Amino acid sequence: MKHGQKEFHIAPMLDVSTIEFRYFMRLLTKRAILWTEMVVAETLVHRSMHNSVEDEDIQLDLELIRHCGWFDERDYYNCIGHDPTVVPTLTADEFVDPHPIVCQIGTNDPWQAAFATRVAKSCGYDRIDLNAECPSDRVAGREFGAALMRDHDTAAQVVRSMVDASGSREQKPIHVSVKTRIGVDDFDSFEHLSDFIQCLVHAGCRRFVIHARKVYTQGLMSPAQNRTVPPLNYPWVYRLMEHFPQCDFWLNGGIMNLEHARNIAFGQSPEISVVWSDKENATSFHEKHSVPCKNCNMPYGSCIAPPPINLSNLRGVMVGRLARDNPSALADVDRYFYGEASNPCKNRRELLEKYILFIEKVYPRRCCDDDNIISSRMVMDMQQKINHNSPHCDVCREFSSEATAIIDQEPTIEKSQTEFTNNNFNCSHLADQKHGRRRKRHFLKNQGAKIVSGIIDSAIQPTLGILFGQRGNSQFRRELHRLSRDMTVRNCGAGYILKKAMACVPPEVWDRPFALNESIVNYIPSK
Q1: Which of the 8 DSSP states describes residue 217?
Q2: Strand pairing class (101-106; 33-35)
Q3: What residues pair up with 310 in beta bridges, in sequence order?
Q4: From CA 260, how far away is CA 262, in angstroms rounded?
Q5: In a 10 Å sphere around its CB, with 0-12 CB exposed, 13-18 middle and 19+ buried, how is residue 519 labelled?
Q6: What are phi and psi of 189, to 5 degrees?
Q7: How far, in Å, are 22, 32, 240, 320, 523 from residue 182 at the CA level?
Q8: CB-side exposure of 412: number of CA atoms within 13 Å?
Q9: Which H or E element spans position 480?
Q10: Which of 55-64, 109-118, 504-513 bottoms out in mean pLDDT, i.e. has the lowest?
Q11: What pLDDT does 138 receive?
């Protein structure tokens, strides 16, 4: 079977799968399929100013796009009326294609699910997925997420509405899938799982992402425990494929590295591609591997054995915490998993330099401008031009490309780090502006910083694991944490903070080529 016939997915993770994280992952791999964090369908309904739930044609606006998690630099600019004086036009080399990408929604309301499907399709997502596995109290307590596994009828109604709203073949429909677990609370038999899948198949769904653990709701386990304590049961997922040969499946949970992922997706004998039930060795596999599994030697008796053959309806795999905690392990996805000639980035320095260019574009520095607006969103959301009076200030001049040529010839701007950081800074002139009181409180509390901490945190979060297992990892993370809380450098922006933290790590660490998969050791996912 050819490499391209299998897929490698990066899972939706709450407070992780942000626009910044997905952009960072896309710099690492052009072929992997990225997922948004779960979008609550009810939020899209309430945030839509120009549409009703029944509208067939969706009129997109900036607020709706933002809450749907969509980000395509070119379409984004067109939607807000791109002004090249605000954000420079992208060249072909600078543009990073967000596709392929999946939007995951959470809801138990068929009408809201249909509306969210139309919004996702209008934005440009390649697929849409229903979350039927999230154990979080704020999700399960509202009777969606993992709670849908206990209510087959509601789940079927939601899926049916999504399939109906996805469009006809003539309209190039958006594909609908369901991400679920192998059990929930006391509903943990294979018969219950099979009945649940059968119910969704009758509703029109043929694509399933199976997290091979059961899930505990009702406060019995925290979300972190639900990702580690219940044993993984890959054999059950393989059995599902045998029961539903007409459906496509993706396996999620406990994947340790790319070699493990490829062995699962292609089988340990990839040259044999058949339906599981066609092979006699399926019986012997199930005899050797079951939960608790003595052969795999994994915590809690988990069984993570790849199938002995290439299962034709196992369409791929999904990883989550591996991408979050050790993104460098995915630097070889395009070559090793998809069979491409090369990977997008050769080393960590190239990766971070490209990412910093993006961050500096969407979250520009505020150290050299006289505007008192607060940067709380991407510059495109603010739709306001940032006019810099100087290419750098006294703080960030060390990383300015112009600094070496004009360091003794051009005065630098000190106002952003001295005048604005003075606790006696006069904010009375802000009172007449919209949200003036809020801006005044922000200036006084944060010593004149014009960039909110949330922007800094969102920008640096994807990079925290880039030196996993490498020399300088602790120093890099400590320096990022220190600088992100240092108000004297806040206005220089997240790009400066990343550059400054990189400088505390030996250059050879950044310049060392990414390890090809053959030399990568197993990764045991953390909480």
Answers
A1: -
A2: parallel
A3: 273
A4: 6
A5: exposed
A6: -90, 160
A7: 27, 24, 10, 17, 23
A8: 19
A9: helix 473-484
A10: 55-64
A11: 65
255 in Cβ contact with 265 (< 8 Å): no
> pLDDT-derived band of residue 350, with 50, 70 and 90 as boundaries?
very high
Give the integer Cα–Cα distance in Å for 236 and 212: 8
Residue 359 burial (10 A CB sphere; 0-12, 13-18, 19+)? buried
For the chain, give the percent of residues with pLDDT over 90.
53
Q: Is 193 exposed, middle or buried (0-12, 13-18, 19+ CB in 10 A)?
A: buried
How many residues in the chain? Answer: 527
Q: Where are the beta strands (DSSP E) in 320-448?
A: none
Helix (H) or strand (E) run with residue 181 in it: strand 175-184
Q: Which residues of 28-55 are buried (b: 16+ CB within 10 A; e: fewer)?
A: bbbbbbbbbbbbbbbbbbebbeebeeee
166, 121 in Cβ contact below 8 A? yes
Neighbours of 499 (CB within 10 A): 19
Report phi then psi at 428, rounded to 5.
-65, -30
Check if the beta carbon of residue 116 is closer than 8 Å to that of residue 130: no
pLDDT in tens, 193-232: 999 999 999 999 999 999 999 998 876 677 788 888 899 9
What are φ and ψ of residue 103, in 5° steps? -100, 120
d(CA 316, CA 318): 7
Mean pLDDT, to the nearest integer, of 113-120? 94
Asked if residues 354 and 344 have their Cβ atoms less than 8 Å apart, the reply is no
- Find the catalytic residue in 68, 103, 123, 134: 134
* H helix or E strand, kind and range, residue 164: helix 152-165
Whole-angstrom distance, CA of residue 166 vs CA of residue 127:
9
The 10s digit of each residue's pLDDT in 51-83 is 666 666 788 888 888 889 998 877 555 544 445
Is 0.85 surpassed by the pTM of this model? yes
d(CA 161, CA 112): 9
3-state helix/strand/coil string of 183-201: EECCECCHHHHHHHHHHHH
Measured CA to CA, the distance from residue 107 to residue 156 in angstroms comes to 12
- Residue type at 112? Q
- Cα end-to-end span (Å), the chain: 34
Return all residues near 15 (Cβ < 8 A) that are at least 6 apart: 37
**Residue 292 phi, psi dihedral angles, 5° rounding:** -75, 140
Residue pair 145/181 in contact by the 8 Å Cβ criterion: no
C-alpha 84/C-alpha 298 separation (Å) is 55
- Residue 1 reports pLDDT greater than 60: no
Tell me which amino acid residue 234 is: Y
123 given a catalytic annotation: no
Token duo for residue 270:
């990839």
Bridge partner list, 8: 317
Query: 1 exposed, middle or buried (CB, 10 Å; 0-12, 13-18, 19+)?
Result: middle
| Residue 424, burial from CB neighbour count under 10 angstroms (0-12, 13-18, 19+) | exposed
- In 267-333, alpha helices (H): 281-288, 321-325
